[in-house]
Amino acid sequence: MRHTPHYLMTDPDEVRRLIRNHPWATIVSPASTGLVASHYPVILDESADGPGISILSHVGRPDDRLHELGRHEVLVIVQGPHDYISPSWYAPGDLVPTWNHVTAHLYGTPEILDEEENYAALSLLTDHFERDRPGGRSLAEDEAATRREARGAVSFRLRVDRFDARVKLSQNKAPEVVDNVIDHVEEHNAGLAEEMKRVREASRGE
Question: Could you give the CA distance from residue 162 to residue 177 in angstroms, rounded to a whole number?
């Protein structure tokens, strides 16, 4: 990502918040056959020791072999709200459009989980996304069957060695312009508008 200092997200807690709110991620590997990309959900590994960021995810076979998972560093991209920003929302004479976004690039080498850990991770992932749903389901309802299904997946833990994250939300514009952009964005992208409001309020010390 372009290195623009005033858009940098350096707070690990903000990266964790992004992961919690936007768990659909892109996993990119520099495999020996070339670049490989897949898309899977990720969740924070809340049991991990230390102050760093750790995530749990899985891939379906044979993606583990295509990615050569565990043999090298991978890039996990987490994308938050984003949208086109029209210069028609700026002051007269300001004609260059842009794209606002919240994005994190996470780097690390996956740790492949064994069969028991794999099932536990898949159960955790399922419970995480089912917990707030009416009639939510659990793999434990039929452990024998879901254990057989689990053999088709390979779960992994990624302890993030470093991250490169951006919060590009019109911080380079005058406050009245930011307010106008938020008003327009809110009409069709409430999530992005909320992120812009958080940045605006932080800059005002609210």
Answer: 34
User: What single letter denotes the amino acid at residue 140?
Assistant: A
Q: What are phi and psi of 89, to 5 degrees?
A: -95, 0
CA distances from 196 to 57, 87, 167, 183 (A): 29, 17, 9, 10
Q: State which amino acid sits at residue 114.
A: D
Only one residue has tokens 């994190």, namely 104
Start-to-end Cα distance in the chain: 29
Segment (H or E) for 74: strand 74-85
Closest by Cα among 202, 201, 198, 196 to 82: 196
Q: What is the pLDDT of residues 99-144, one digit of tens each?
A: 999 999 999 999 999 999 999 999 999 999 999 999 999 999 999 9
Output phi, psi for 121, to 5 deg.
-65, -40
